[in-house]
Amino acid sequence: MPKSKVRKKSGYTPPEDALRSRGAQAKVLQPSPRWYLALMVALWLIGLLWIVVYYVAGDQIPFMVSLSAWNFAIGFGAMVGGLIMSMRWR
Question: InterPro entries in the record, alphabetically (predicted)?
Fold first, then answer.
């Protein structure tokens, strides 16, 4: 069986208007400030520390006893806040 000819495809070149409009819309993203990283890591550690303290000595700390299951929401909420910040960190 004969082999078919392979056609050479020309490369795609976008129109000049598309190149100019795309270049005008591009934003240069600046790196995050130093305090952003410190706050992000602090939220992770505060959340983790809150949950550990609740497990270890939660029954001896009066305000943690009154919060009961909300201690998990506070701890995990702080950690999720740090996680959300990590997605925006540059």
Answer: CrgA (IPR009619)
DSSP state, residue 55: H
Q: What is the pTM of this model?
A: 0.67
Would residue 79 count as lying in a domain? yes
- Looking at residue 57, its amino acid is A
More confident call, 4 vs 23? 4
Exposure string (b/e) for 5-18, b if CB count within 10 Å is 16 or more? eeeeeeeeeeeeee
| CA 89/CA 64 separation, integer angstroms | 32
- Residues 71, 51: Cα–Cα separation, whole Å: 7
Q: If you ran DSSP here, which 8-state letter would residue 9 be given? A: P
What would the mean pLDDT of 64-84 be, rounded to a whole number?
96
- Smallest Cα–Cα separation from 89: which of 48, 44, 33, 42? 33
